Sequence to fold (539 residues):
Amino acid sequence: MITDVLIIGGGGAAARAAIECGQKNVVIASKGLFGKSGCTVMAEGGYNAVLNPEDSFEKHYSDTMKGGGYINNKKLVEVLIKNAPKEFKNLEKFGCIFDRSENAEFAQRPFGGQSFNRTCYSGDSTGHEMIAGLMEYLNKFERIKILEDTMAIKLIVNEVFENEKKLKKCFGAVFLDLLNGDIYPIYAKSTILATGGAGQIYPITSNPKQKVGDGFAIAYREGAELIDMEMVQFHPTGMLGTGILVTEAVRGEGGILYNKNKERFMKNYDPERMELSTRDVVAKAIYNEIQEGRGIDGAVYLDVTHLDPEIIKEKLETMLSQFMLVGVDIKKEPMKVAPTAHHFMGGIKINENCETSISGLYACGEVAGGIHGANRLGGNALADTQVFGAIAGKNAFDNAENEIDISKVYNSVEKCIEDLKNAFNDSNSGDNVYSLIDELKKTMWDFVSILRDEKGLTSALEKIVEIKEKSVSINGIVDFSKKLELENMILVSEIVINSALLRKESRGAHFRNDYPKINEECIGNFVASLDGISFVKLE
Fold:
């Protein structure tokens, strides 16, 4: 299969990129159901955009940089905030319906770490509304082909000479059909990675099961740079025991956190912003309350019973029904919540055109790093998907005007597929892949989650290496796909741990017990490549 643009991913960034280059031949390859297996559809809180004359780009920029610990890529932040309003209005054009105030202006609610109420929303199911509109609009394009249950397992990259310069160039990717086991290439003039993050390297996560870090891993193996992979956001409020997200909109509408002693404990951590502090601060606060014995069943309470029941029904409808399923009526009793692995601020290093260090390869959405720095503000992620999805699509479209010569890579691709098929048919005895995945997840949760230190990180690295050295038993397509996922999870985990070891400070989502303060010498980014991890100091 040969196409103009290949988009790997199934969420909001992938959909927006596809719309932007829909006049070309486009193939979207989604590991799960398109629109249903990404994080966008699960995002409940809202979309940040400067729409009110009393708000400003300067305020949004300042909030985003401050929330990110000032290690964000400043140019990418500028691109995000200046294009967010335009892309928000595009969503309405695509058919999305957002809440409005009584005077018909877009309704905007407060969100953590923000100096203005700039989070636009559709009740508490904003991401679902966005995906519905994007997918409906995509139906207008006859040249877009969608492949589901299709896992990208290798990028097709080769060294070429262009303009008397040697560089790496992407020619598409090799895929595994998760239903019938076929392994095949899709060649493309432009390739966009919109594969999301890697929350599934942790046992408790808000992420869908597909998010194991495939995009990070396949790009890194071919020479793409990854930036600030130690920065993993733990959302403060997940449903106890499941990790299912309890949207920040609950706190935005006035939800109160308290411990088993009925103490509103956020006054001890951020008395000015309280529950609307940034996610890293609230997550550490909840974690600390639980660790010091003031939790209840490994959680704390989040309470909205003081709100008007009609407001809960109207603005927190999803949360109301979500907790009703477990027998909790949030109009009458508090929710039990605990932190859950949620979002990777780190990712593939991109420039303002969403270009990576590999020619012809673009990245957008959560798989791209540098935008959110050390901590993402709630509401910035949905804007991120649309702003950078559109930019990636436009530049991929322009690049697809060039011709592609697959003869340069055909033989190597055929050999790669043959090797993968041999591995598929290799059913040698070994460890159960699911047990190894569980072991990896437990290791990451125990040593590389909210609180970290050198001893724990070193122990985690040793355990991950032990897992990597074990052989895996393969019995069928599912086992084979899980083996490939495990390899990606191991690689991503190693990069996260090694980056965390090198960042000897606490900043944003990265908290080191042995280095509890911000180190001004660490104002910069850790960039991982095949040559190792280097520190790039910000000016």
Summary: The first strand starts at residue 2 and ends at 8. Residues 168 and 236 are 40 Å apart (CA to CA). The domain at 1-231+345-425+518-539 is CATH 3.50.50.60 (FAD/NAD(P)-binding domain). The longest helix spans residues 477-502.
